[in-house]
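Weekly modeling sync, notes
Attendees: S.R. (lead), two postdocs, one rotation student

Agenda item 3: backlog of single-chain predictions. S.R. asked that every request posted to the team notebook include the full sequence so nobody has to chase files. The rotation student volunteered to paste the first one in as an example of the format we agreed on. Action items at the bottom.

Example entry:
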Amino acid sequence: MCLICMSVYLVSLVLLSSASCVLRTALEAVDGWLTSHPGPYLCGEKITIQDCSLAPKLFHLVVAGKRFRSFEIPLRLEALRRYSTAVMSSPAFVSSACAEKEVIYGWSKFFR
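Predicted structure, as returned to the notebook:
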């Protein structure tokens, strides 16, 4: 479910700046999950397909959200911030992620 919420927000980033309620709910849900489950990743100590799905969406949210909407993950969502750091510094993500400038370029056509 959290992956669906994150995807919905990424689309709403393009459509409305007032979609912060949708984002807040999605991020709180992910943070709640991470708080109640052990491990640095969604399902524990090892990266799973769920992380491989969520990490790029979260990366786009962090990069495009900051650049185009001055958005950052709230400090109070500590588990989500730790997860973001862990997953985005994992060898799997580092070796496959696009550069931040490519994310910005890709989203820039929606923010002219």
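Discussion: group reviewed the output briefly. The chain is about 70% helix and 0% strand.
Action items: rotation student to repeat for the remaining queue; S.R. to check formatting next week.
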